[in-house]
Amino acid sequence: MKMKSALLGAAAAVAFAPVMAQAAGHEGPRGRDGNVSIIYWQAPSILNPFLSGGTKDVESASMIIEPLARYDQGGNLTPWLVEEIPSVDNGGVSADLTSITWKITPGLKWSDGSDFTSADVKFTYEYCTHPEGGCAQATKFEGVTSVDTPDDLTVVVNFGQPTPNPYGPFVGGESPIIQAAQFADCIGAAASTCTEQNFNPIGTGPFKVVEFKPNDVITMEANDMYRVEGKPAFATVTFKGGGDATAAGRAVMETGEFDYAWNLQLAPDVIAEMQEGGKGTPVAGFGPLVERLMLNNSNPDPALGDMRSVKQDPSGPSEHPFLGDPAVYKAMSMAIDRPLLVEIGYGQAGKVTCNWVPAPDAFNSTSLSCDTQDIDGANAMLDAAGYMDTDGDGVRETPDGVKMSILYQTSTNAVRQDFQALIKEWWSQIGIETELRNLSASVFFGGDAGSPDTFQKFYADVQMYANTFNGTDPQAYLGNGLCDKAPRPDSQWQGENISRVCIEGYDELHSQLSSTAGIEARAEIGKKLNDMMVENGGLIPLVHRGRLSAHANSLGGVALNVWDSELWNVADWYRIK
Amino acid sequence: MLTFTIRRLILAVPTLLFISLVIYSLLEFAPGDPMANMPLTIPDEVKQQMREALGVGQPIWISFPKWLYQFFIVEPLVLIDGIFGSTFSEGQQRIISWQTRSPVMDIVAERLPQTLWVVGTAYVVAILIALPIGIYSAYRQYSVFDQAGTFVAMVGYSVPPFFSGVLVIVIFSVNLGWLPSIYDTTLEVVDWETFKLQLKQMIMPVMVLALQITSQISRFMRASMLDNLKQDYVRTARAKGMSEWTVVMVHVLRNSMIPVVTVIALGIPSIFGGAIITEQVFKVNGIGQLLITAIQANDLPTVQTLTFVFAILIVLFNLLADVLYGILDPRIRYD
Amino acid sequence: MTDATNATIGEKMPEAPARGRWADVWRQFRAHRGAFWGMMFLVFITLFVTVGPLIWPHDPTALDIRSKDMRPFYVGLFAGEDSNVKWSWEHPLGTDNLGRDLMAKLMLGGQVSLAVGWVAMLLALFLGALIGVSAGFFKSLDGPLMRMTDLFLALPLLPLLLVMMLLFREPLRATFGSETGTFILIVVVIGITSWMQTARVVRGDVLALKEREFILAARSIGTPSSKIISRHLLPNVMSAIMVSATLGLANAIITESAISFLGLGFPPDFPTWGKLLSDATSRLQRFPERVIWPGVAISFTVLAVNYMGDGLRDALDPRIRGR
Questions:
Q1: Which of A144, B102, B172, C123 could connect to C191 by a Cys-Cys bridge, CB 3.0–4.6 Å?
Q2: Going by C-beta distance under 8 Å and a sequence separation of 6 or more, which residues neighbour residue A563?
Q3: How many C-beta neighbours within 10 Å does residue C127 have?
Q4: From the CB of residue A433, how many other CB atoms can be counted at a distance below 10 Å?
Q5: Which helix (H) or strand (E) holds C310?
Q6: At residue A496, what are phi and psi to the nearest 5 degrees?
Q7: Chain C partners of A451 at a C-beta cutoff of 8 Å?
Q8: A114: DSSP letter
Q9: Superfamily assignment of B111-328 in CATH?
């Protein structure tokens, strides 16, 4: 164990040489650095990530309860409560890819002093897969048929079929282990009666809860049973929630009241101004999050009534009056000045991308390019395809005489409204008229089948939002392009194929991906799927977005991780003196 | 007056039941989904299972009576148990928030202190400032004091707290560094030091809120005083040789209080309701913030319970205002 | 009631008969300094937002990324020649982060804010006065009307807005077109959610007034209720209505920005004073002008209406008039 943590520390030192340069001076007894204060502008409501999938809840809980393995800031799997990452090579994953065997580190204790055993892991599986429990992380256990515990320190997860990526269950911040003894009476429908357990989970992490005020503040103290000597450096944690991103950034970078602020979705000039306060530093990290324009492949005409935004032929081509034409969506994409969007909206937390899957690097396709705006080229392309402004009002008509006027919706958010204004302007230069609409995020992203304004109903021609996937494998995410996942009235408008795209050969290629092992082969298929989706008018990628957080200049050891919880290494944080 | 009060109190019960039904149907009908804040990485089937586990989408004729039972029977029993240590409520399902999976009333109890501290103080401060300003402004109409008062009140009312709050934070927290920009709800006042800290963190939210309330009350006070100062009875009183103080502060003031009492009575339920924007800006995280986060997360049990508690307060304080009318002006009769 | 409403606008006054009561009222009104300047300011701001856009060369929605983040002329002049403050006479009040001209945004924003503010305020006032007077005067109506007021006070605003959006947005758009439809929706929403205070205050006043001697006298000589209300009650609750009017105007202008945030209001690139104010708050330190100007516009308009209300009330009061 000692050896392992030393090695880990060495690995971190390579990645974060400047921070670790001062490392020599910050060793010492547990709790030597007093209090650390963290602000999340969305307040945690519950400390049980199985009952709430919200990022705020998952990340706050990650300081207390931990998974068997985590992703580090580079997206690599790192053993956490186990000896090593099982693989086919070391025999941890069976040759037929149907089971994975985890070896728990001996001597681990829960914060109440009892032993951490494989029974707890098995219990976690049972807790989350109970049919009445409504577990938010159920997808983590998809395909798992059973969890066996040959002894106290061995966990065998069995899958129903060969699973090339068996690192779903018990890996990452969304899938931590909860204590069987504590949650024994909370299985299934009883889950929501266990307020005490949900607010004060017993964990193996560096901190334990002293007081949890839902949607307000969590007070934590160092876990005496934590496995690493001398960690965490902080004796107590104040985890405040609420307000807005501006206020959180201000509290860290301008007034210095807080040490760490999460996810500052602010315009780069606002961040830069805060940084001039001199008390804190923003840090950015890039996961696979992409801000994109989804194109409607069905017809959103209100006159269609019940069949609005529903494809007559779910497996057929685009039924939109003009958005289905490659000339149109390619021209729309060419008219966009992506570097400017990055500069205006995200600064250091954004990159130009033409891809649906921009990360991890292995999956990032290089076959498309889109980083220069070409209004003339776009105009020429539309002219050539027969879209002309026949009545002289500055807006083109399709060859059938339909005016090229589109409704462009997104959620209410300052940066998104700036993007809307800019893109509307560019499209007007290529003769496409745009009407803008912004909707409250709680309505837009809500799956209420009764509301006309959800992103799933897509009662608009174009809509903008961001999406990503957990972990480093995009298989499930790429599944969002499958024909039968299009939202429809008979599925209560549920389904992830928001653009209702249906591409020939896509579904077959995706099923090939799910049976292919080996990272190179998988990446090859992944890139192909990505290119197919973008080339066939499923979406127009805009910006590869990073996560931007800020820490006080006196807070050391921060390693922003976008593949797992941001607070994954809170045990290593310390005060720079 | 007593029979009137009793009759109104009895009448309040069906009124409140009706109000609760209207609010409940409104919330049921409003678009929204408790899963809206979940990341898009959680697939729809899982979200559907989570909704089912929460009991979302039950028909209203099942869920509304259940809520009524929990609100009027179970929660009072829990309160009784809490006070006397009895066990009447054992095994009864309480009103559970969809966001936190914990009893709504417990969160309300947890939030009430900071809301009462901040919003309550702001109200008291505002009334104490507004009444003298209103009276003196009217008494010396168009004097410099009146003009300045008018200016400050109107500007103060038309600057919304989402701006004035940020402005004072920038001045007092960022530039001067005197006051904290984030309210610490874990602070317990035990000695002089912590009391000073509490005062420091209360100053800005109280200031911002009090400005709005003062503006409003002082305008109504001034207008009503002006009306009464011109009445014949004032001339009569002065002619009788009463002192100016008695004329203004006893006779005119008493007759001018009706609109002011109305406005204050309308405002007191909002003390308990918190000040949504101000609480957000200063991170006071009281009842107002609870309500707005519950609305954003479409946490119906919380929204319904909170709104209904406000409804009770509104009905009670409007009744109180009506009773006060009768005391201020005995000619007012209700029966 | 219609008399009172017209009088509140203050526009009909000069057209009233040249002699008699209204001439007196007008003379008194003009002599009131605050009221006069208040009216002048309202005339100015109305011209600014209506005629202004016709003269002003910039389009409030036109983006010009090269001239983004310009400062107003006074900052430029104050900083002197050789500073690196970015400003130009082309954009005297500066531009926003996408290069849209602030002056043009203020003009267009004012059109909407003033229109929404006035109409919503008058609607709320009309409802409030009607319900307040009816409840106070007719005993049989008091109970039902006041319980309805309690109900409206208790309704949570945001869900109510969402429901109204769900029910009425599409039909209104279809009938009146996008902009008029949105306008009607916003005005009605603000109107029906802000009349309650006026109603309670007016009712309180009426309850006390109707027991006064002059009302009893009027009633004893057989004056019909409608006459009592219009001749005797309304003039005496005027001051409360005026205060509600000025507060209501400020409220309506600010509420509009909150509604737009929900997606219920105007499209996101369409400026209004309230929205300009809320959008610029995050850049308060670096670009104070972006909050100051819309803030000043709102405050001064409200102030002007307040002074006009003062003047009007004095002018309408027979006890003061002619003094």
A1: C123
A2: A71, A72, A73, A75, A172, A287, A471, A472
A3: 18
A4: 15
A5: helix C289-316
A6: -100, -10
A7: 166
A8: P
A9: MetI-like (1.10.3720.10)
- Chain A, chain B: beta-carbon pairs less than 8 Å apart: 193
DSSP class per residue in B275-332: -HHHHHHHT--SHHHHHHHHHHTT-HHHHHHHHHHHHHHHHHHHHHHHHHHHHH-TT-
Yes or no, beta carbons of A214 and B99 under 8 Å apart: yes
**Residue B119 per-residue DSSP state:** I
C322 lies within 8 A of chain B by CB? no
Domains belonging to chain C, first-starting first, are 28-52+103-316 (1.10.3720.10), 63-99 (no CATH)
Q: Cα(A465)–Cα(A474) distance, rounded to whole angstroms?
A: 18
If you ran DSSP here, which 8-state letter would residue A463 be given? Answer: E
C65, C165, C268: residue with CB nearest A340: C65
Beginning with the edge strand found earlier in the chain, give each strand of the sheet holding A144-151 in spatial order.
Answer: A99-103, A154-159, A144-151
The Cα-based distances of B176 to A433, B181, B203 in angstroms read 49, 12, 14
Specify which residues A406 forms β-bridges with. Answer: A434
Element (H, E) at A510: helix A506-513
Q: Which two tokens stand for residue B58?
A: 């039950």
Complex-level ipTM: 0.84
Domains of chain A: 287-546 (3.10.105.10)
- Both tokens assigned to C74: 């006074």
Nearest Cα neighbor of B98 from B50, B59, B64, B63 is B50
- Pick the residue from chain A with its C-alpha nearest to C161: A440
CB atoms within 10 A of CB B125: 17
Residues 42-61 of chain B with CB under 8 A from chain A are 42-54
Distance CA B225, CA B231 (A): 10
For residue A65, which phi and psi values (nearest 5 degrees)? -110, 145
The C-alpha atoms of residue A364 and residue A288 are separated, in whole angstroms, by 9
Any idea which residue has 């409007």 for tokens?
B318
A450 vs C: CB within 8 A: yes
Substitution target from C158, C282, C286 for chain A, most A beta carbons within 10 A = C282
Judging contacts by C-beta atoms under 8 Å, the chain C residues touching residue A266 are 282
Q: Cβ–Cβ of C155/B23 closer than 8 Å? A: yes
Q: Name the residue in chain B with its Cα closest to that of C135.
A: B334
Q: Residue written as tokens 């008194």?
A: C28
What would the two tokens of residue B80 be?
Answer: 């009784």
Q: Which residue of B has its CA nearest to A480?
A: B43
Note the pLDDT tens digit of each residue in C174-208: 788 777 888 888 888 888 888 998 999 999 889 88
C-chain CB neighbours of A267 within 8 Å are 97, 282
Backbone angles phi, psi at C86, to 5 degrees: -95, 115
Q: How do the pLDDT tens digits run along chain A, 577 residues long?
A: 344 444 444 444 344 434 443 444 567 888 888 899 999 988 888 898 888 878 888 899 999 999 999 998 888 889 999 988 998 888 888 888 899 999 999 989 999 989 999 999 999 999 988 888 788 888 888 889 999 999 989 999 999 888 888 888 899 888 899 999 998 888 887 877 788 888 999 999 999 999 998 888 999 999 988 988 888 899 999 999 888 888 889 889 988 889 999 888 888 888 888 888 888 999 988 888 999 999 999 998 888 888 888 888 888 888 898 988 889 999 999 999 999 999 888 888 899 999 999 988 888 888 888 888 899 999 999 999 889 888 888 899 988 888 999 999 998 888 888 899 999 999 999 999 998 888 888 788 877 777 788 888 899 999 999 988 888 888 888 988 888 888 888 878 888 889 898 888 899 999 888 888 888 888 899 999 999 999 888 899 999 998 899 999 999 888 888 888 889 989 999 998 7
